[in-house]
Amino acid sequence: MDENPTVGRPRVIDSASVFPMAEELLAAIHGHGMAHHSVVRWGKELADLHLDAQVAGEDELDDINLRRSELIHEIDLWTNRNVPQHRSGVRMHTETIGSVVDKIAEACIRLVHGMITWDIAGAEVRGACNHLAEVVLGYRDLVAEVVQGQRRLPMLGGH
What we know:
Blueprint: H1 15-18, H2 22-29, H3 38-55, H4 58-82, E1 91-92, H5 97-117, H6 123-147, E2 151-152
Parallel strand pairs: 1-2
């Protein structure tokens, strides 16, 4: 008789098989590699929008921010469709995957901009680099916890 050690246990999903790895997202934002994953393509577009926002006029910012909201919502819809959400007894995170991907995109653009405009050895660049590292770690932790059923995401509303 074969025994199945997983019977009665929740199925554990590898986060890398569902969500893109942070390195793939970072590479796409910086124009390297192919963006095969929808979340990576949307993350790249978010980064482009953050870059556009740096030189946009007031009248353009509303359109840029509207498009960012749409992309964040697309990521969140994708997450809802592709990742089972464990609702009962699971702690809720305050942000969605889409908002965290947007923060990674923003932090990447801020760091690149800072490396061009600030003293490369200065505190601003170090701070921007540390912030990007923290947001990337937060993304890794969040996607791992969500796919393992240890963390739930806020319910989707209108972004």
